[in-house]
Amino acid sequence: MFKHFFAWMLASSLVLSVHAQNGYDLWLNYYPVQATAQKEYSNLLSSIQLDDTNPTQRIILREFEIAVRKMLNQSIVQQSNASIQLKKEGHSSLANLPAEGYILSHHYHKKKPVVTIYANDDAGLLYGSFRLLKELQTGGYRSQEKDIIDYPSIQYRVLNHWDNLDRSVERGYAGISLWNWHTLPDIIEPRYIDYARANASIGINTVALTNVNANALVLTPQYLEKVKALADALRPYNIRVVLTARFSAPIEIGGLKTADPLEPAVQDWWKKKTAEIYEYVPDFAGYLVKANSEGQPGPQDYQRTHADGANLLAAAVAPFNGIVMWRAFVYSNETPEDRFKQAYNEFKPLDGSFAENVLVQVKNGPIDFQPREPFHPLFGAMPKTPLMMEFQLTQEYLGMATHAAYLAPMYKEVLEMPTYRPDANATVARIVTGEQDKHTLSAIAGVANIGNDVNWTGHPLSQANWYAYGRLAWNPQLSSEEIIEEWIDQTYLLSQEATDILAGLLLNSREVLFKYMTPLGLHHIMGWSHHFGPAPWIDNMHRADWTSVYYHKADSTGIGFDRTASGSNALAQYAQEIQQLYGDKNTIDENFLLWFHRVNWEFKLKNGKTVWENLCFRYEEGVQEMQQLLNDFLSIQNEFGKEEGKHIEQLLRLQLKEAQWWRDACLAYFQSKNQRPWPSGFTPPPHNVDYYKEIQAKLKFVPGI
Ligand code: BDP
Q1: Atom of ligand 1 lying closest to residue 296 CA
Q2: 644: Cβ below 6 Å to ligand 1?
Q3: Per-block mean pLDDT, blocks of 10 residues, the chain (705 long)
Q4: What is the DSSP letter of 502?
């Protein structure tokens, strides 16, 4: 497109400013506007009318000041009858506008452009302001003649930080935690504010500060003071905080002998503790809980149900309008049942027994954030309970911060799936937004990929996932394509041709990664515990469901997990239509084949080749396509700042090397199992499987554990 051309020329001449780019500004770069639009923008952004005694409106003013200085090198003054106005009345559509929504209304006054941002609340004014700034940056503003009306589809749009109090981040690959617990509450780092700005610009309004593998210490006064300082800093940006509640906290910090949810002393303890939290943080959003999962304490320690546990905390936060986000990520070592099925088995019978202010937080797929998973069978299965989605932004199983993988297509794939409960309209998205089952409470969570690295996410291109998550949480209908365009336009200063190439690269990236890591629906074959690199040979760890062989079941005869009626019958947890979709190995989308079927090595796929041949060629294709992504980037690298371009180039080269490693290690292993000849025309891995095992064995210091 044309829109960036002039800006691009302008900034190319300001070489220094481009080269200074280090990613810190994220998508809030506010690049100089194109010459043709300068006059109009300059008129529009000359003055603003708002209430600067209001904390949120004060930060709106500040954001305009930053933006106007960077886009136009001018300043914006406050005055009445300004060209930008913020109003909470005076538009007929306000009456029906939901909370946090906004209206942007454009008109000309004496030939000068005027934009009024209407909303019923400060949050709406904030989001409307960021929307206007986005329109201005991406060239959308001039084409807008009609009012823009927008509001969020989901109430709580949450980032889950798996951050520990010692600043390590579980599954974090972008440095240490943003939260400097040591210097809080006295020091409010500028980074907290920039983090809040970034979230506000995409509509994220809730932040779980601490790891789901929780530490009860955060609930003690000494830490609550720190939490308060963060909450105070985030509040004007319409962000509320959540804390993770360790279920055994009444014992650990409360001096009780039990944490039994039905014990009055325990109930009383949580009520008092919660009231205390609200004294520090009056708009505390509530608790996020991981219970009876992977060794965490929970109600089942006392033979109580997950509903008993959730309702205990729900009663404590209810007087303050707080909520409980209770995670469904539970599976037991002792249960011989297919791990796929366990969360459903545990939670489905509890539908209807959760308090009104409880949401059950369900991961997108039934196992654990794999490169591709079928949607979790709980979606659609608990109509009486608001279910919230949990996506993972941090790429625990997807190459961490060294692999570029734009995840919006993966999120969309799940959100758009019809659950057929009861019909094709009942998509996962409609269940999450609450529309399907008429829930007023709705929420979505993304496990953050954010740390204190200068560019926030380690891999510069992973910023796109933070952005895309926020945008989809606001509106799950948006397309991956429009989101990536927006992100590129605000993040980089590229010609239209380069924008298209980068967008294409990113749009393909997750599919390419899927091919070189887990083609045909392989899953959970990554390195032991740290989950980095290929390790399909992992077989004798203390839990079967933490090994790789549990999931792929490859032997001399075949490969894949039979989840049909002849196997674990996990398929039966879905509606009939989904059972049909996935139930037949001859018609199933081959990307899910090994999720649901065990096939022998000679089984023919739709292309007439055997599963073994297909496995070989798909891994190979993944590597070839990764090479293409690298080539695509090289063709546009000169449009990036020198250091930034080099950084991305190095990362993509590393990704290519690791794609090759995945291909070779996995195929060497599977061939050692099936002893089949390599397909003709295929280049076998250069080493045997022991070589690759040795590489894994030496990976002792992978981050994020
Ligand atoms: C797994 C991670 C583990 C998390 C767990 C969870 O390996 O670190 O604690 O999920 O979501 O993906 O609770």
Answers
A1: 13
A2: no
A3: 41 43 96 88 95 97 98 96 96 98 92 93 98 91 81 98 98 98 98 98 98 98 98 98 98 98 98 98 98 96 98 98 98 87 98 98 98 98 98 98 98 98 98 98 98 98 98 98 98 97 98 98 97 96 90 98 98 98 98 98 98 98 98 98 96 98 98 98 98 96 92
A4: H
* Closest to 205 in 3D by CA, of 447, 443, 456: 443
Burial (Cβ within 10 Å: 0-12, 13-18, ≥19) of residue 81: exposed
For a ligand 1 pocket test, name from 161, 162, 330, 363 the mutation site with the most ligand atoms within 8 angstroms of its C-beta. 162
pLDDT of residue 11: 45
Is the CB of 524 inside a 6 Å radius of any atom of ligand 1?
A: no
Please tell me what DSSP assigns to residue 468. H
What is the separation of C-alpha 589 from the centre of its chain, rounded to a whole number of angstroms?
Answer: 25
For residue 609, report the phi and psi dihedrals to the nearest 5 degrees: -95, 160
Which ligand 1 atom lies nearest to the CA of residue 705?
8
Cα angle 28-34-36, degrees, rounded to a multiple of 5: 145
- Alpha-carbon distance of 101 to 82, in angstroms, equals 22
**DSSP-assigned letters across all residues of 344-360:** HHHHGGGTT-S-TTEEE
The tokens of 279 are what?
């004294």
Active-site residue set? 294, 368, 396
- Cβ of 171 less than 6 Å from ligand 1: yes
d(CA 288, CA 246): 9
Regarding the beta carbon of 290 and ligand 1, being less than 6 Å apart is answered yes
Distance CA 617, CA 103 (A): 51
Q: Which numeric CATH code is attached to 156-491?
A: 3.20.20.80
**Tokens of residue 3, six digits:** 């829109």
Closest CA to 98 of 121, 64, 65: 121
> Whose CA is closest to 446, among 434, 457, 454?
457
Following DSSP, what letter does each residue of 506-572 receive, concatenated? HHHHHHHHHHHHSGGG--S-B-TTT--SB-TT---SSSGGGSSHHHH---SSEE----STTTT-GGG
| Cβ 170 under 6 angstroms from ligand 1 | yes
**End-to-end Cα, the chain, rounded Å:** 43
Domain(s) labelled CATH 3.30.379.10 in the chain stretch across 10-150
The answer, yes or no, to whether any atom of ligand 1 lies below 6 A from the CB of 390, is: no
* Closest ligand 1 atom to Cα of 531: 7
Cα(34) to centroid(ligand 1), Å = 46
- CATH fold for the domain made of 514-561+598-697: Alpha-d-glucuronidase, C-terminal Domain (3.90.1330)
Residue extent(s) of CATH 3.20.20.80 domains in the chain: 156-491
For the entire predicted model, the pTM comes to: 0.97
Distance of CA 326 to the CA centre of its chain: 18
Q: How far is the CA of 450 from the centre of ligand 1 (A)?
A: 16
CATH superfamily name and code, 10-150: Chitobiase/beta-hexosaminidase domain 2-like (3.30.379.10)
The first and second tokens of residue 62, run together, are 């500040």
* Residue 422 preceded by cis peptide, ω within 30: yes
Distance between CA atoms of residues 468 and 457, nearest Å:
14
Do residues 208 and 161 make contact, with C-beta atoms less than 8 angstroms apart? yes
* Residue 662: both structure tokens together: 């995945």
Residues of the chain with CATH 3.90.1330.10: 514-561+598-697
